[in-house]
Amino acid sequence: MKRTLVILLSLCAASAWADVVHVTYRTSAGGTASTVAEATLETGCGYTTVSAPALDGWLFTHWSSSESDPLVVRDAFGRALDAARFTLYQDTTLTAHYVSAAQDADGDGIPDGHELYWYGDLAQGAASDTDGDGFTFAEELANGTNPHFPDTAAPGGVAWSDGDTLSSLRHRCECLTRSDGGTGVLRDIMLGGALPDFLRFSLRGSVSPCETL
C-alpha cells in the first residue's frame, strides 16, 4: 500500500492559477526501484523531500530527478543531502539511490556507499584526510564525525569533535543577534534560510524558540 509523501512547502504562496502535477517518490537499490509514496502538488513552488529512508544492508548515496527541474542534492562541500530540495514544474519522479553496504568496487577499504555519499565519487580511500585534521576517512566514519570538518584536540584530554553534538546540523551555522542582544537564531549560511524552531536557541542559554530575524 502506498503512503502519502510528506513534502514541506517553502517560500511559496498558494495560487488559484498554479498547475497541479504528480510527484512520485521511490528508492533504487541493487537495480530494483520501489515506489514508496506519491503526491499531487502545485507547480512553481519549492519543496523538500522527506529524508532518504534507511534500508537494511544498503547505503544511501544521493537523490536524482526524472526531470530537469532544479534539484539540490549536495551541500557546498559535496556531501549528499538526506532530503533533496527542488522546484516543481512538471510530473516528476524523485529517486533515492543506494548501493550495497558491502560493495567496495575499488578495493580501497571504504564501502563505495560512504565515498559516494560524502564525496560523490570513489576517489577517497581509507587513509585519505581531506580536512587535514589527522584523522583518516576510516577513522572519521568509525567515530561518526564529518570528514569535511576538522576535529581538534588540546593537551589535558580535552577534545572538540564535529560529531553529533554540533555537526548533526549538517551545515555550518552562524548566530545572529537581535538589536536588543536578547536572543539569536541559528541560520544555515550554506542555504541562507532559517533553521526550524527546535534548532533555534537563546544566547542566554535557555533552549527556546526565538523569532526569525
| Fraction in beta strands | 35-45%
In the sheet with the most strands, the strands line up as 1-4-3-9-6
Low-confidence stretches: 1-11, 163-213
> How large, in whole angstroms, is the Cα Rg?
20 Å
Number of helices, where a helix is a run of at least 4 consecutive DSSP H or I residues = 3
Provide a quick synopsis of the model.
The chain contains three helices and 14 strands. It is mainly β and 213 residues long. The radius of gyration is 20 Å and the shape is elongated.
Explain this structure.
This protein has 213 residues and is mainly beta. The protein is built from three helices and 14 strands. The longest helix has 8 residues, at 112-119.
Write the layout of secondary structure elements.
Layout: E1 3-4, E2 8-10, E3 20-29, E4 32-42, E5 46-48, E6 58-65, E7 71-74, E8 80-87, E9 92-100, H1 112-119, H2 137-143, E10 152-154, E11 158-160, H3 164-167, E12 173-177, E13 184-188, E14 193-194
Parallel strand pairs: 1-4, 3-9
Antiparallel strand pairs: 2-5, 3-4, 5-8, 6-9, 7-8, 10-11, 12-13, 13-14
Q: What distinguishing features does this structure have?
A:
single chain; 213 residues; 3 helices; elongated; disordered N terminus; disordered C terminus
